[in-house]
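2024-03-11 09:14:02 INFO worker-7 job=invfold-0412 stage=load source=structure_tokens
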């Protein structure tokens, strides 16, 4: 590949290589809430995570599926690289969806301490403490630095890299 990576390539690389995202949700009164969450992308780049059913962000997703996500890379003395997503999130309830979510989460089991790994479907259904959630990105943008009046500012540029759902 010649030259610098495209915004789409940079965004895809961030999603592929990072393991934590910042999930922004809103409660029923409109109060925002952000949470760091370990995630796993599927082949279409929907993002999956497991959370306690009583966590504030879990309740917020059940009440309002609109979420914001940031995945970023930060190293001292280097520019921050980040991908921003507006997404639609759901708690998986259908047994087939839950089984698929478990398979997807297991793809990164080696990156999680054993106590965070899903051992059986009973841990993420019925009276189990966890649930699996899926966020389907609606928009994908990449962080971009530009200059305005001789000062650096940060903006975003489109970076859609997903294949539209059929």
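2024-03-11 09:14:09 INFO worker-7 stage=emit residues=166
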């Amino acid at each position: 590949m010649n030259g610098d990576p495209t915004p789409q390539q940079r965004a895809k690389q961030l999603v592929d290589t990072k393991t934590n995202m910042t999930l922004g949700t809103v409660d029923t009164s409109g109060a925002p809430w952000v949470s760091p969450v370990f995630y796993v992308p599927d082949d279409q780049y929907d993002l999956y995570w497991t959370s306690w059913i009583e966590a504030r962000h879990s309740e917020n997703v059940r009440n309002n599926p609109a979420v914001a996500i940031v995945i970023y890379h930060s190293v001292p003395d280097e520019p921050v690289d980040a991908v921003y997503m507006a997404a639609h999130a759901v708690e998986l309830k259908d047994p087939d969806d839950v089984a698929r979510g478990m398979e997807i989460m297991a793809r990164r089991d080696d990156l999680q301490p054993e106590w965070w790994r899903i051992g059986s479907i009973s841990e993420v259904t019925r009276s189990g403490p966890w649930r699996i959630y899926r966020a389907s990105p609606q928009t994908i943008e990449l962080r971009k630095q530009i200059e305005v009046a001789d000062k650096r500012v940060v903006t975003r540029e489109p970076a859609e890299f997903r294949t539209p759902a059929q």
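2024-03-11 09:14:09 INFO worker-7 stage=report msg="The mean pLDDT is 94."
2024-03-11 09:14:10 INFO worker-7 job finished
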